[in-house]
Design brief:
By secondary structure, the protein is mainly alpha-helical. It folds into 3 domains: 2-75, Homeodomain-like (Arc Repressor Mutant, subunit A), CATH 1.10.10.60; 91-170 and 231-243, no CATH class; 174-217. Helix content is 70%, strand content 0%. Helix 1 packs antiparallel against helix 2, helix 2 (22-36) crosses helix 5 and helix 6 packs antiparallel against helix 13 (223-243).
């Protein structure tokens, strides 16, 4: 993300020597969003930071949504799902690598996911590059064109939802807890299902310890299982389609 900001600011500096530019506005918005979150970005805040009136911004961005769309295009620039691909890889290994690349690049750009959710344009070039990469994998595997597009839509929903929940699901201050603190946290979580009526929740009560261990752990530990579930499911769907 730092590399993207440096590039955006450098471009803004090159093009903005004669005054305010769209690039300079977007670059500052990305700086604010990266430091304080997307909700901190507003046209009023930008005008104040850039030393201009809010009306001056409207010569370069139509409104907040136009700004968000421009920010999205910058942040998604350079996404490459094919990094690390080898000619010997089968489609399943290529898909695994593509999903790993997507997660890593999203994690490196914390604004990418909230911006992609807020985006309302026709699709930035970075989006279409990812679409092209995934289509190449799924069509090469043998899926039909429409089926591949449907699967890409499903994949994007699943992975984006996973990443969003992972960010929200990490227990606050978990990394600061020592072994004793983690054990106390697990015990506290374990008490919740243990307090449920056993006749109505027999499986939850019996699984209380395992529930606590999993829920207290970093949810990103289950990324490999998520990828396995996706890839194995697609392999089965492909086999079923060929069987027909």
């Amino acid at each position: 993300m730092r590399r993207i900001l440096v590039k955006a600011v450098a471009h803004a500096n090159r093009t903005g020597r004669r005054g305010l530019t769209r690039e300079a506005i977007v670059a500052r918005a990305l700086e604010i969003g990266s430091a304080e979150g997307l909700e901190a970005v507003s046209l009023r805040r930008l005008a104040s930071d850039l030393g201009v009136t809010p009306m001056a911004l409207y010569r370069h961005v139509r409104d907040k949504q136009d700004l968000v769309n421009a920010m999205t295009e910058v942040v998604l620039e350079g996404f490459d799902l094919t990094a690390g691909f080898e000619p010997s890889m089968g489609w399943a290994d290529r898909l695994r690598r593509a999903l790993e690349n997507f997660r890593d690049q999203m994690e490196a750009r914390p604004l990418a996911l909230p911006l992609a959710i807020a985006y309302s344009g026709d699709g930035p070039p970075g989006f279409w590059k990812m679409m092209e990469d995934l289509l190449g994998i799924l069509l090469g595997a043998g899926f039909g064109r429409r089926e591949a597009i449907v699967l890409i839509r499903v994949l994007s929903n699943l992975v984006a939802g996973y990443l969003l929940l992972v960010r929200q699901g990490r227990p606050d201050g978990l990394e600061r807890l020592d072994a004793q603190g983690l054990d106390l946290l697990r015990r506290r979580v374990e008490l919740v299902p243990l307090g449920l009526p056993r006749d109505r929740f027999p499986h939850s009560v019996a699984s209380a310890r395992e529930v606590a261990e999993v829920w207290v752990a970093d949810p990103d530990l289950w990324w490999r299982d998520t990828v396995d579930l996706i890839v194995f499911g697609l392999e089965r769907m492909l086999e079923r389609g060929r069987g027909r």
